[in-house]
């Protein structure tokens, strides 16, 4: 007989919807039947129980988070209290990632994607389900956000004017599983096919950074990719000193080169070492004359980015900016 996974009936939420989808991706619970009930006698017969029952015990696949004293977090530096989705992901996420990537569970890339998907996808579901504010403030939000996954799943519950029979609820629950599960798999796909290759490119570019400038404070991307978060994480992992101040890359559309000042932290606007004040807001010949560098195209008014027609021109801009300004960090 096939395995059975129990969760509560009635109104459903994103955490148990996603948890049920994820657990069915495992070898142990592949294609398991989902049984929705609050009857403890029924739940006691289940092979796994999510979001109901008052027990957290991975040895018996019980994953509730509502009981008094429950404060389980994901670990790895994360402190958000887990929901049933987070609990399933904590114990089965690496197996799921390994299967989707076609790698051994112990592979380093599996661990990287495992942590990245929790941070970018699962943690917010844990936080919302447990009523944890995203920001430390007692002020009300400036606007409502009912477009996130948890809100969209919630809207799939039968409306008070619609059929609210168990059959209708179960149909809506399985529809919600499909939506939440699809976005979960899309997240894994992004990190496997885009995020991991970008990390490799940034790591290789860091390793060869002194080829462009002996200080090691100018990095040339071998191929353009999302680099900001990777650079910050790799600098910390590698204990890099000095930190990189400028990143050079080719703009695929214009085929010109960009020199971008690295921000003090991902998501911040302030740069570690903005391009010189005298260059800011200038363009073309006026900028080339001021900088005494041929081929200059522009420098933004804030000094966070500039451009040159050639790689050598962009490198010259970065080198000169590095040497004519005092270090800011």
TrEMBL record:
It holds the Pfam family MYG1_exonuc. It comes from the Eukaryota. InterPro entries: MYG1_exonuclease. Belongs to the MYG1 family. This is Uncharacterized protein. It comes from Sphagnum troendelagicum.
């Amino acid at each position: 007989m096939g395995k059975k996974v129990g969760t509560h009936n009635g109104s459903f939420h994103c955490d148990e919807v996603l948890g049920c989808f994820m657990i069915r991706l495992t070898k142990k619970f592949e294609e398991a039947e989902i049984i929705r009930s609050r009857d403890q006698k029924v739940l006691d017969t289940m092979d796994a129980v999510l979001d109901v029952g008052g027990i957290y015990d991975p040895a018996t696949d019980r994953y509730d988070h509502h009981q008094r004293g429950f404060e389980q977090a994901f670990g790895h530096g994360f402190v958000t209290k887990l929901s049933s989705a987070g609990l399933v992901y904590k114990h089965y996420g690496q197996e799921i990632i390994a299967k989707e990537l076609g790698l051994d569970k112990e592979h380093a890339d599996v661990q990287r994607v495992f942590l990245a998907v929790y941070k970018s996808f699962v943690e917010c579901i844990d936080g919302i389900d447990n009523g944890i504010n995203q920001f430390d403030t007692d002020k009300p939000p400036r606007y409502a956000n009912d477009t996130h996954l948890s809100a969209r799943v919630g809207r799939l519950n039968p409306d008070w004017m619609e059929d609210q029979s168990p059959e209708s609820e179960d149909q809506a629950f399985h529809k919600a599983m499909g939506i939440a599960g699809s976005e979960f798999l899309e997240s894994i796909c992004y990190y496997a096919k885009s995020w991991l290759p970008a990390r490799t490119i940034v790591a290789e570019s860091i390793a060869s950074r002194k080829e462009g400038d002996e200080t090691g404070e100018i990095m040339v991307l071998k191929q353009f990719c999302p680099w900001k978060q990777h650079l910050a994480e790799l600098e910390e992992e590698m204990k890099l000193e000095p930190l990189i101040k400028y990143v050079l890359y080719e703009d695929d559309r214009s085929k010109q080169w960009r020199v971008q000042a690295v921000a003090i932290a991902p998501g911040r606007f302030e740069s570690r070492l903005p391009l010189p004040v005298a260059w800011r807001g200038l363009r073309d010949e006026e900028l080339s004359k001021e900088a005494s560098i041929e081929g200059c195209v522009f420098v933004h008014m804030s000094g966070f980015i500039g451009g040159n027609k050639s790689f050598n021109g962009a490198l010259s801009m970065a080198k000169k900016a590095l040497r004519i300004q005092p270090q800011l960090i």
